[in-house]
Amino acid sequence: MKQFFTVLGGMGTAATESYIRLLNQRTPTTKDQDFLNYIVVNHATIPDRSTYLMDHSQPSPEPDLLEDIQQQSLLKPDLFCHCTQHSALFLRRLASSCLSTDCSYASGNGQEYSNNLSRC
Question: Is the full-model pTM beyond 0.85?
């Protein structure tokens, strides 16, 4: 698949589903082929971000998020995005440790970053 993006989701499966539903509803289409190409990663077992932010002795979500980024990077998406507020705190930090510069990262609130999430 060419010209696609990856949604790093599951950090609130309902939030991920809602984001995808809104994305599809707001995409102007006249036929199925007009929809956007994307892959959704629904990694629901990632440790809770809020719990970790309040108590660093709890499991960190960073290793799981990094693994998702690394796995998805093999597919070479044009863009990574997420739809939860707390995941942004971790993804920005993880993005700065990636090696490639040919991919962007966008948050669900419309902010876009060029944080090198293409091949970690």
Answer: no
